[in-house]
Amino acid sequence: PEAIILSLSGSFFQRTMASVPNDNNSNSNYCARYAYNKPLSLSVPSSSSLDATASVTSLLSLFGSFESSAEALSREIALGRLNEIIQMWMREVAVAKGISLEGDSNTMEGGNAGGGAYSSSSGNSSGGSLAALYAFGSFRLGVHGPGADMDTLIVGPRYCDRTEDFFGRLYAKLEQLSEGPDAIVEELHAVPDANVPVIKLFFMGYDLDLLYAQLAVDRVQPETLDLDDISLLRSIDEASIKSLGGTRTTDQILKLAPNPESFRICLRFLKLYAARRGFYSNKTGFLGGVNWAILAACVCQLYPKASASTLIVKFFRVISKWPWPLPVRLKEIEHDSVLNLQVWGTRMGDNKQLMPIITPSYPAMNSTFNVSESTLWLMKSEFKRAQEICEKAQAGELSMTAVPTEPAEGASEPTPPTEPSLWWELIQPHQFFAEHSHFLQVYAHAATAEEWRTWEGFVESRLRHLGVNIERYSYSSGGMLAIPWHKKITPPDGIAIDGTTPDDPTTLPHGRALFFVALMRKPVDEKNVAHKQQIAKLKQQHGGKLPTPDLKGAVQEFKNKLLMTCPFQRGPSMHIEVTHISRAKLPDFVFTATKQTRPAPPQREPKAKVETKVETEVEAEASAPADAATTDAPAPEEVKEEDAPAAAAAAAAEAAERQRAQQE
Length: 664
Prior knowledge:
Layout: H1 25-33, H2 47-62, H3 69-96, E1 117-118, E2 132-136, H4 138-141, E3 150-156, H5 162-176, E4 185-191, E5 198-203, E6 206-214, H6 238-256, H7 260-277, H8 289-302, H9 308-320, H10 373-394, H11 422-426, H12 432-435, E7 438-446, H13 449-473, E8 480-484, E9 511-521, H14 529-541, H15 552-564, E10 575-582, H16 588-593, H17 613-622, H18 644-663
Parallel strand pairs: 3-6
Antiparallel strand pairs: 1-2, 2-3, 4-5, 5-6, 7-9, 7-10, 8-9
Helix pairs in contact: 2-7, 3-5, 6-8, 7-8, 7-9, 8-9, 9-10, 13-15, 15-18, 17-18
């Protein structure tokens, strides 16, 4: 029997190795290499699980998860061209600073150099490579799809400075390549004040994030450079350590995940599942690529010889029962007495993080510090749903080999399978906007393309703070959950955010996007005695009902903090507006963009009007001056009893916002 014994003290999976079969050398080698997460089973795949894996692969192909050979070649050509530019730039930096290049013969011949570095087969006439270019993230893991963005890292020597040379000379060089009919660079944008300084650009059609790490060495030799060597982190700045973290983490995941092919298929499916279910985003407080990769690698360590289809089923069994905030780790956390960098578990507040998923490279850190109470609640609900679906498949109610077929003519989705399918059921899109009744709508916009590129990313990275504020401000009234939609929604060209067509479409901002946060009462956790007692006391004090949360402070604090912590000079056209909107008032393009279905309005019998607190709030807003902004609060008959606090709180917040606008 596969008994998973979870312990809150000591290592998270307690299992003696004596119970694991050890009948051949490969098993012994496995146990020596992956000793942290001890295997729960070393069973080899059955023929039925291999058939199920073939079905998963077929489904991934239908959803365009794999890149064609031509696309892969095009991507490699783009990386090779980028590396040529980087070598030219580094040579110019060396010459400008009087660095002798004599004896530099570290020429690399095509392909990948040590540790995944890229080189140009053409070389150059002046010597070998002076910097190393690495790709990390999904591309390095081998789970990227067509047109996927790429995370890249330049590793340079001590004489090449980040401010003067990376954001100065290299940026200028890339800027030159964005001019003229043969331009290969578009949407070039530097973010030097980010947590990890980055240059963002589209290079030969590929969306790139370009990082820079400045090592304390005179020469960088890509063919011998080992980024896993902790000694490289000595005598370098914090920004370089953070920049190296992505590549080092990716390489560690690849080394620690057994059965790479099954790992990759499993991870591809999990990424598709999360994206279609609406919680694939690290920025908004869910899980991003590296988080899913660590979780998938953890399950691979527990079932090192399992097929991809088995790993997916085991994944939901393990993660749905995981006792958060117990951390997920792939190896023991490393410490270095010389560097003495802070690692996870040594900082104040580490024990308060809700869903720690620890990176395997030094210095270890929590890759999910953005997770909030609301996003954790949604993810736990989703994992529970997935586990229940998997149980149906194991009971024979769902097929593990049935898959959809090619889309019908004119259809954007594959044709559903002819019989109930596990894989098809797992990835059915989450009807987020149909399932919730009330939202906070965050409208960010800027007049110019340059201002918008800066403003959009900053607002999106701070959106999670709005949800945290709502959780905190609503605590005294029983608590609320603020669940974000994981992607921005851009209105169609020429269409206003309310779905109407303005008389003069040219008045619309050049850059604009909508972000949505669903509001709902925090469910009562039967295991949380303190919360149950709080709810009972509040109902006793307020005539059997919970008081209306006051969200105006949460919204105002979010806006104030957003403006005060802006790391760049905010342009005059960079604005943000936060308003309440009911599901009935959502424009059609919201449902179209997210491929969701607007629910039909409920048919109700006319009945006598019963005044409620929500109606009082709405009527109070109706008495506001005519020149005040109109409210999007729902009409009383649209408000369900469980949604009334959310509607009233949002209406009150918007009324305060209008009052502040009038005062300004």
